[in-house]
Design a protein that fits this description.
The protein is α/β, with parallel strands linked by helices. The protein has eight helices and nine strands. Strands 1-2-4-5-6-7-8-9 form an eight-stranded parallel beta barrel, surrounded by seven helices. Helix 4 (123-137) crosses helix 5 (152-161). The structure holds SN-glycerol-3-phosphate (G3P) and magnesium ion. This is Glycerophosphodiester phosphodiesterase. Keywords: Hydrolase.
Amino acid sequence: MNHHWPYPALIAHRGAGKIAPENTLAAIRVGTQNGFRMMEYDVKLSRDGVPVLLHDDTLERTSNGQGLASRLTLAELSALDFGAWHSSAYAGEPIPTLGSIAAFTLANQVHSNIEIKPTTGHEAETGRQVALAALALWAQASLPPLLSSFSEVALEAAQQAAPTLPRALLIEEEAPVDWPERLERLGCMGLNLNDRFVSQALVQAVRSKGYTVAVWTVNDAERVRELLDWGCNAIFTDKVTTIRPDTL
Ligand code: G3P
Ligand code: MG
């Protein structure tokens, strides 16, 4: 099957990379203000099962909380500050729910890549709940969000819960030799690859089998051009003020 990439070729990583607190509405606003029409963000579940944006399992790096985020309810997470760690300008920035981000991106015609980032041990539940939430939240969207995950368990659960939502398999290091079988089994449109392990031969192999390739996280403009020339469909970048869609 030949998979078409319907999304933009540049994707803002974690909303606005590093120039605003990652995975917050503030970051997604900054990415949007810089011309990005697609955002990647990481989603996991609160203790009471609400999909929220957060990269790490634990709270210390990106908030004033402590310990596992999965031990706190949405109400408890909402009492924390997810912006002050970045800079005082963002003090008080709350953790966003997937619902609040859906509302913003839909209102601003911005597409989404929802990276399902389960807390360890919660892979299937997270895949299922995030996919069901995305299906409902984006029911009226012109393009559905792309779901991706390093967790094949999460992707399989997402596929069962919401088979119509497109999926991509994230690969952390070297692509496993059986990547075609994995994509086929999970019904994925393609691979989202780590730039450090991407070769032209791999890109050509994936594209020639009819699958898509997106590469993270590329912060050098020359490398962005090279990867697109090789046939990559999309690039994730942190450099939202310098590697802008209007400079491609
Ligand atoms: O989805 C691409 C990229 O975000 C994967 O790595 O650690 O930044 O979530 P990470
Ligand atoms: Mg991510």
